[in-house]
Write a structure and sequence with these properties.
Blueprint: H1 4-15, H2 23-32, H3 43-62, H4 66-77, H5 83-124, H6 130-139, H7 147-226
Helix pairs in contact: 1-3, 2-3, 4-5, 5-6, 5-7
Length: 227
């Protein structure tokens, strides 16, 4: 297939580092960009064809399995030990790297959330200990798709902590006031009993005094009659 469309598109692809396309690839590209006259393609059609074939090339690379890529590398390296052993070693190395990367990512995420909790708490005027920051950070859902959603989760966690703290303070206030009220009632009862006891003693003293006075008057009157 020698025509202006194929030649120009192939040249442009080669300059960008893309090659190895077949006759069918260029035919598919011409159909995709609606180029009916291959000898008189427009500039726009050729640009679109280049993009089309570049995407097609990347799609081909994407479907190559990791095992196939590994085999290609092994063929180039011409190892002395069996290929099967090297494949297993590469898989183990890959698994270890993935695990380590996941652990690092988890650690970094936890650290980032802790920093977000601290920053957001400062904005809200909430003072937290290191343990409280860690507890709140552990309760935050970090599986959100966007950073704004994570911030929302941090704020909700802080608000929930603030509500819990306020409820705890209210409960302590209620308990304290209940104890004070019970003490006031108890002491009031004690005061009433004390007053009653004092009044009873006072009444007895007054009664004794009246009796003594009456006895003295009777004695005086009896003496006056005998005179």
């Amino acid at each position: 297939m020698s025509n202006k469309f194929t030649n120009n598109v192939r040249t442009r692809l080669y300059k960008q580092g893309y090659q190895g396309f077949t006759k069918d690839d260029f035919t598919d590209a011409a159909i995709a960009v609606n180029c009916d006259n291959l000898d008189e393609p427009t500039k726009e059609q050729m640009n679109q064809a280049v993009d089309y074939l570049k995407q097609k090339s990347m799609s081909r690379l994407a479907v190559v399995s990791p095992t196939e890529q590994l085999l290609e590398e092994l063929v180039q390296e011409t190892p002395e030990e069996p290929v099967e052993n090297i494949i297993e070693e590469r898989k183990e190395e890959s698994t270890q790297e993935t695990t380590q990367s996941g652990q690092l990512a988890t650690t970094d995420a936890a650290t980032d959330v802790g920093q977000l909790v601290t920053s957001k708490a400062n904005e809200m005027g909430v003072v937290l200990s290191e343990q409280q920051i860690n507890d709140i950070a552990d309760s935050v859902d970090t599986s959100a798709d966007t950073f704004d959603e994570i911030l929302d989760h941090v704020e909700q966690a802080l608000l929930a902590y603030a509500d819990h703290s306020a409820d705890s303070v209210d409960a302590k206030i209620d308990q304290t006031l209940d104890r004070v009220q019970q003490r006031v009632i108890y002491r009031h009862e004690q005061s009433r009993e004390h007053l009653a006891q004092k009044l009873t003693k006072l009444g007895a003293v007054l009664e004794s005094s009246r009796n003594q006075t009456k006895s003295q008057l009777t004695s005086i009157l009896a003496r006056l009659k005998t005179v």
